[in-house]
Design the sequence.
């Protein structure tokens, strides 16, 4: 009897040790690799359901995405360096662009986007002259270059090029530019924003007046960054010194942030204010006459009319405040008839096509978020957009002769397609051992009474990181 008990205890001990080492193995993943699969509609212990639910219709073998964008998260036991995402999907309505993204900044909710499917590139591949080297694709209307290296070493004018998912180095110079008068932008902006400025033989001078609305208890730190040629050259920060015990209170006193840098080279500079939605930029003073906001303006409700200029090909507007419901009058840049963009409901995005040129949007009152694929300014003279045309569904093919992209077209198996997107997880934002991901199809809306959708059948994430041996070598080398 004692011998039986001893054997039983030994077996249980061995099982406990085996379970411990199994859990330890799963936790540290000593080979530095892991694969996680979400085979819809089966539940995954690591990949969350795609949401929000009002943008997804789940079926027998797929998740039907009916609104843009949607999100999911990946829970991991440890950090990794890279992710290879395979998306098995159907595009029955031939939507022109599908992308996947990795969350890299949770304050301004920025994702690093990678292509899933770009139908424009797929179509141009058939009737333009393609050159493909690894994942880089060059498409030429007429055969002028024999290789991508030849194209990059002696490129055509940037006005004749469109890009997609490719960082093409070009020099942007405004001919006959002369410094203009200083300007003060007094339309209060909520939260984060980005802007381009241009300077030549002048001091870069920027002064911001900000305040904290104190509508929530979160710390509202503010950071200001200045970039040149995609490199950070200066930064400032303001720390929220409110203690947790103080809780909510009235709006703060005005705070100032100021950049003043002389003797900078001629060119375009990017300014980024990184702040939460509690922060308001009440006033911007700049010595630079060219000052244009990138992609979006969130206008504080002050009950004032606002005129906004933009080169966006499509303008979107949304509001959360019934007071700001209105009809926006738009004078298109191509000289065609005046358009009306009616913002008739809260929490619903409305949009209008603007075609080409610089358009003027006349807002009866502020309190709106307006966005587009271009830039925005409060005077026509301030507008500046150094970016090369993007190769998407709105590209005017008559205006360009070349398209360069980093793109892998999806594989097809019967009626399903499989696309690969690669991400650098060292740039990703991770919280509670979770990475955030996005799937986007610009223009897809859940509230437009259309039956269009993307059908997702499977998401597979193959992760790589440092192995236990790599870590050991690092320690011994140190």
Sequence:
């Amino acid at each position: 009897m004692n011998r039986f008990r001893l054997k039983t205890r030994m077996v249980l001990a061995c099982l406990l040790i085996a379970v411990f080492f199994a859990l330890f193995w799963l936790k540290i993943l000593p080979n530095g690799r892991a694969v996680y699969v979400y085979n819809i509609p089966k539940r995954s212990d690591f990949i969350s359901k795609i949401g929000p639910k009002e943008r997804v219709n789940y079926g027998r073998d797929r998740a039907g995405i009916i609104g843009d964008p949607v999100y999911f998260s990946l829970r991991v036991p440890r950090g990794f360096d890279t992710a290879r995402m395979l998306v098995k999907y159907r595009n029955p309505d031939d939507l022109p662009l599908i992308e996947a993204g990795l969350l890299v900044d949770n304050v301004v909710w920025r994702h690093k986007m990678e292509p899933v499917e770009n139908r424009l590139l797929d179509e141009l591949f058939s009737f333009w002259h393609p050159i493909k080297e690894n994942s880089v694709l060059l498409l030429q209307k007429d055969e002028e270059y024999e290789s991508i290296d030849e194209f990059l070493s002696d490129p055509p004018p940037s006005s004749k090029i469109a890009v997609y998912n490719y960082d093409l180095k070009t020099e942007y110079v405004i001919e006959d530019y002369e410094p203009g008068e200083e300007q003060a932008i007094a339309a209060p902006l909520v939260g984060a924003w980005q802007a381009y400025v241009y300077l030549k033989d002048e001091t870069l001078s920027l002064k911001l007046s900000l305040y904290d609305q104190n509508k929530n208890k979160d710390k509202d730190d503010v950071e200001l960054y200045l970039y040149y040629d995609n490199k950070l050259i200066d930064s400032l920060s303001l720390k929220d010194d409110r203690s947790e015990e103080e809780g909510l209170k009235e709006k703060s006193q005005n705070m100032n942030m100021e950049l003043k840098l002389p003797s900078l080279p001629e060119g375009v500079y990017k300014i980024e204010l990184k702040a939460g939605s509690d922060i308001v930029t009440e006033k911007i003073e700049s010595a630079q006459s060219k000052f244009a906001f990138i992609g979006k303006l969130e206008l504080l409700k002050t009950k004032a009319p606002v005129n906004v200029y933009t080169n966006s090909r499509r303008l979107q507007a949304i509001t959360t405040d019934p007071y700001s419901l209105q009809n926006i009058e738009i004078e298109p840049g191509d000289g065609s008839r005046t358009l009306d963009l009616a913002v008739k409901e809260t929490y619903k995005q409305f949009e209008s096509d603007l075609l080409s040129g610089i358009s003027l949007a006349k807002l009866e009152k502020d309190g709106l978020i307006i966005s587009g694929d271009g830039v925005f300014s409060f005077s026509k003279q301030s507008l500046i957009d150094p970016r090369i045309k993007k190769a998407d569904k709105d590209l005017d093919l008559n205006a360009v002769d070349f398209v360069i992209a980093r793109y892998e077209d999806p594989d097809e198996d019967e009626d399903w397609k499989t696309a690969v997107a690669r991400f650098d997880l060292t740039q990703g934002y991770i919280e509670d051992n979770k990475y955030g991901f996005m799937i986007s199809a610009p223009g897809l809306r859940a509230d437009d009474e259309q039956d269009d959708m993307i059908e997702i059948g499977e998401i597979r994430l193959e992760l790589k990181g440092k192995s236990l041996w790599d870590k050991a070598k690092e320690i011994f080398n140190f």
